[in-house]
Specification:
This protein has about 280 residues and is α+β, with helices and mostly antiparallel strands. It has 5 helices and 19 strands. The strands form 3 sheets. It has a 9-stranded mixed beta sheet with strand order 11-6-7-8-5-12-15-14-13, with helices on one face. It has an 8-stranded mixed beta sheet with strand order 2-3-4-1-16-19-18-17.
Length: about 280
């Protein structure tokens, strides 16, 4: 890979605007097993024994828009297949329905949504030596997940006690209005590598040698407008560059491209051509 960004670049936390903050906190804490790290009147931050992974911003009057750009899903990366199996068992015990499950060759994934319809993926990565490349392009596909095989990994062990230590946000998948504009922003301006495409309707980007930190698609959002300010859904997600000079270089590329940069607590807030918020930080 020839990414313009440091190989150690990561994403997360993801910030969501929600209409019913107590219900959302219950879901992520009791349902998915996150831990509340900081709780205010309108903002709750959650993690899994480490840094914040999710920020929930309560806005009771927020509208829920239909045909707009925004979040497709954010992806929770667990450390092992056994952890994925234990999460699957727990979801069943809590009565939280799956929307799908898939084998992507590089990973195995479960799909669901929170009470406000925000898409969630819970996944585990396969070892990188098992990833397949075709003429430099990473091979990813969507095949049925071997659910019995995953469940066989659950074991009897200790009772479920929440998302395991080492859980992190692995990637963020966005709904965009146009693939070409998104590719220019995330590859040429932000500086991620394009790792693979699904036809002309989805593209995947990464720093270092990961399969993807950001994905975009137009499956339900082709030519759609951004959601209005203050709407429920994605507020922004963080891209950690881990290097002050890298942040300066990204900011310079953003300015040359005419991207508006807002200095906020925690870094520089920009928006992709479809209005999705990206917070850029020098932190690691």
């Amino acid at each position: 890979m020839s990414s313009l960004l440091p190989a150690a670049t990561t994403v997360g936390p993801v910030a969501l605007t929600v209409r019913d903050l107590p219900r959302s906190v219950w879901f992520y804490e009791g349902g998915l097993g996150f831990q509340v790290r900081d709780k205010g009147e309108r903002t709750v931050r959650l993690g899994a024994g480490g840094p914040d992974l999710l920020e929930l911003h309560g806005r009771p009057g927020a509208t829920h828009e239909g045909h707009t750009t925004g979040l497709f899903h954010f992806a929770i990366l667990v450390p092992s297949r056994r952890d994925l199996a234990r999460a699957l068992v727990h979801l069943g015990e809590m009565g939280i329905p799956l929307q799908g499950a898939a084998d992507h060759l590089v990973s195995e994934a479960l799909y669901l949504a929170d009470p406000e319809g925000n898409g969630i993926e819970i996944y585990r990565d396969r070892p990188r030596e098992e990833w397949i490349f075709d003429d430099g392009a990473l091979r990813m596909t969507t095949e049925p997940l071997d659910l019995p095989g995953v469940l066989a990994e659950a074991g009897k062990g200790a009772p479920w006690s929440g998302m395991p230590a080492g859980t992190r946000i692995g990637h963020v998948h966005l709904r965009v209005a146009e693939i070409a504009a998104a590719e220019n922003f995330y590859q040429s301006v932000l500086g991620l590598d394009l790792t693979t495409r699904y036809g002309g309707s989805a593209s995947f980007f990464a720093a270092g040698d990961y399969h993807h930190h950001v994905a975009v698609n137009t499956w339900t959002s082709l030519n759609a407008p951004p959601a209005p300010a203050g709407a429920a859904g994605l507020d922004h997600f963080l891209v950690r560059l881990g290097d002050a000079s890298a942040l300066e270089q990204v900011a310079a590329r953003m300015r040359r491209a005419g991207v508006r940069i807002e200095e906020v607590a925690g870094g520089l807030l920009v928006r992709d051509p479809s209005g999705n918020g990206v917070l850029l930080s020098a932190e690691g």
